[in-house]
Amino acid sequence: MKIEKTINILNKRAKFEYEILEQIEAGIVLTGTEIKALRSSKASITESFCQFIENELFVVNMSIDEYKLGTFYNHKIKRERKLLLHKKELQKFQRKLKDVGMTVVPLKLYINDRGKAKMLIALGKGKKLFDKRETIKNRENKRNLDRILKKT
Question: What band does 98 get if pLDDT is binned at 50, 70 and 90?
Answer without folding.
Answer: confident
